[in-house]
Design goal:
The protein is built from 22 helices and 5 strands. By secondary structure, it is mainly alpha-helical.
Length: 515
Amino acid sequence: MKFLANKFIVVLLIVFYFSINLYFLTDFPFVHSDESWLSGLSRNILEKGSFGVTEAFFDLKPRNPHAIKILFHSLQIFFIKLTGYSIFTFRFISLLFGMLCLALVYLTAGKLLDSKALAFSAAFFLASDVQFIYASHFARQEIIILFFCLLAFYRFISRPEKNKLKDDIIIASIIGAAIGIHPNSFIISLPFLFMYAYDVFCLKKSSIKSVLIYILTLAVFASFFVGLSLYFDPDFFRNYASYGSEFEVFNPITSKVVEIKFFYQKLYYGISGTYYTPDIRFQLILFPLLIAAALIMIKKSKDKSLKTTLTYLLLSILGINTGIILIGRYNQTSVVLLFPFFYLLAAALFSCMKNRGTNFFALLIGAALLCSTVFNVLPYLNNSYDRYLEEISHYVDKGSNVLANLNAEYYFNNGRLFDYRNLGYLQDYGISFEDYIRKNHIEYIIYSEEMEVIYEQRPKWNGLYGSLSYYEDMKSFMENKCVLIHEFTDSTYGIRIARYVNKGDWFVKIYKVLQ
């Protein structure tokens, strides 16, 4: 693949890759309510002029302001002002950071392996991977967290032989700034602790002072974001702990360790709740093979530089997995943090082959990844999110108050959509379904057929909308105090449960509330 190292060809491929991704940016993956949840808060912060507000679409579901994602929301606010409020705007942010990640992988591989061809191979593998494309299209924080991780890793491997304290401060500052993107920045902090330990105790390249400086700098950043959170919410610790308990982050470490096995099993078999989970069976077979090959090479090779490179990459993979275990949320979207390090590992192993079959194996892996991506993406290109919103727009004005699924939030004005998640708290507030509708002056109810599936299979899907204790009252209200004005089918947005998406036609019904 040496001919692909030509700079002009690389630039052309980058432009082509970027253009192709723009073409299906809003089609793949399907728009998830997490995206509108995050951007909806950004819009509310912008309109209210304060970071101390919470989401406008939650009035009963407990929410409390904090500063842990303040940089992420600031970034989204900047782009809202620049290009407006739409799913394209926020996915474009992710795509930009995806491109930066590719550039960093290319630079990192070139720095580690001193080969433009191998650098291109690593970047090409990542660019072809469906999990990476998914993250680069998804308006969540994982791709930005990955950018910070790769930037810090590039800085780490670029340190001089006798690194100075400023290098450690810069690396820690990059990771520390990521706290303002998402709490999962904790995951990407661990690889550097492991690599510093390797430097101190094995390579004698760093001193224990470097580790302490790294930890202290991270603590300063964490203290800043926590202090700002306490300014927004004096009960931040209690409220944030309560939120974390919903996701079992305080489970015993023993149960978290056991859970990692099921985490990877679910990824392998594509088992998910509401998140799109691509078919990555090829990668999950390839990656353990790469680890095994790297361990063998570390033991047999006499090339100290190569052994150090392989060790850094393996420690990064170990550190990210350790972080995922310690947090214990096991969110499928976080697995993308591992992928660049595996492809860097593959490129490093290719460098040991001395051109013996390198091109063949590189082309084989690249072709397999491309084929996997095509088969993953194609089913979603015929399901337009714009078409879904257009169906709604024909019958409901964007300024109307509605009870609806949060995935429709991009059509409505801020503060007009009330999400179904609020209804799970009706009993806590002693409010009937009808009282809730009247209190919020809700004019339309956009009802998806998924509610019937969730109710029939209860309590299996209670995590989506609560216990659905309000379901019978809601159905009675719609039948007796509403009029059905439109219904349509949508195989993607008529249901949130991932296993049923694109499996048949799902009805979406629009009811007008009678006054």
